[in-house]
Amino acid sequence: MFDYSSVFSVLPLPAILIDSRGTIVDVNDAYLAAATKTEESASTDALIGRPVWDVAPDDNDPILPKAMVEQALAS
After folding, report:
1. Nearest CA to 19 among 43, 52, 59?
2. Given this model, what pLDDT does residue 57 score?
3. CATH T-level assignment (fold) for domain 4-74
């Protein structure tokens, strides 16, 4: 059986998993490291369950641009 969480957590690039409603389901370690550089604190527990728009409010976000989120939700 494939264990997505083992692979997801060690991806070298920041990654965020959202559901079809735009709710954050998971974030990987690289995302947390990048987010910590732009926010005071970022933790998996603090992010899971929040709307992705709280994390990627506009296209100026260097980690997760709004256009990328909109494209993912549309597909």
Report:
1. 52
2. 61
3. Beta-Lactamase (3.30.450)
